[in-house]
Design brief:
It is a single chain. This protein is α+β, with helices and mostly antiparallel strands. The chain folds into 3 domains: 16-68, no CATH class; 72-151, Ubiquitin-like (UB roll) (Roll); 153-262, Orthogonal Bundle (DNA polymerase, domain 1). It contains 9 helices and 5 strands, in the order αααββαβββααααα. The protein has helices spanning 2-9, 37-53, 56-68, 97-104, 160-167, 177-192, 213-219, 230-240, 249-254; strands at 76-82, 85-91, 123-126, 129-132, 145-147. A 5-stranded mixed beta sheet has the order 2-1-5-3-4, with helices on one face. A hairpin with a 2-residue loop joins strand 3 and strand 4. Helix 5 (160-167) packs across helix 8. The longest helix has 17 residues, at 37-53. It is globular and about 70 Å long. Bound molecules: FE2/S2 (inorganic) cluster (2 copies). One FE2/S2 (inorganic) cluster binds at residues 112-115, 117-122, 132, 134.
Amino acid sequence: MQIEHRKKRGKPAEPVKTPRESMSCAHGSQCGWPVSRRDFVAGVGAVAVGAAMGSPAWAASAVDSQATDPSAGSEVPLSLTVNGEQKQLSIDPRTSLLDLLREDLKLTGTKKGCDHGQCGACTVLVNDRRINSCLTLAVSIDGDNVTTIEGLAKGDELHAVQQAFIDNDGFQCGYCTPGQIISVVALISEAKSGAASIVTRDLRQAGPVELTDDEIRERMSGNICRCGAYPGIVAAVRQVSGKSPTQTAFEDRVRGDSSAAF
Ligand code: FES
Ligand code: FES
């Protein structure tokens, strides 16, 4: 009824203004917005084009953020022995060992999988102990010895672990393989030195730890293989540890190895 009444009297209904709409327009129009619709659309377009083209404004903001980062551009000296070669380097202190190996030293055999310490693809030896190079700041190992997959073979002669992976189909795509092989090299010496794992049955027993399948799986659990080449990897470890690659846990038991899993 009210609408009818207004129509009759020719009085248009007034829209209710929001607080924002009641602000004055910067360009003097009566649109109710601080900037005109045209300027707003043009501004958004300019930002989008700038982002796509790498505009000077975008680059300037990156330069500004570098300027406010006190560590940017200040390099530190680093001395490393990599695969037997002495290296005197000057690096950004934020560089991970993985990036140093791959980007600066061009040793791309070490792979970057997750870059978060979860896959083991980046495993290298530092002073003969295996580590995730993606989680290691290069400056933290100043003066140390690094061994990568490139440092295992002696000329054309493959390392025994490399050969065992080939003999036992321990890989498919090969992406995880350098990390797996380096891990096995460390695993063998850890077991020989008597280092126990979570599945070692007798912690009081001195001497080398028997590498059962359970021991192998546990000790290799930090290295993920998306291709699922695990049976071949276990067989390869068995081969280099002096067992038959196809030897089963049952055979271990028959031989008297009570720690073998069933
Ligand atoms: S890349 Fe280092 S653990 Fe995955
Ligand atoms: S062989 Fe492909 S990820 Fe392990």
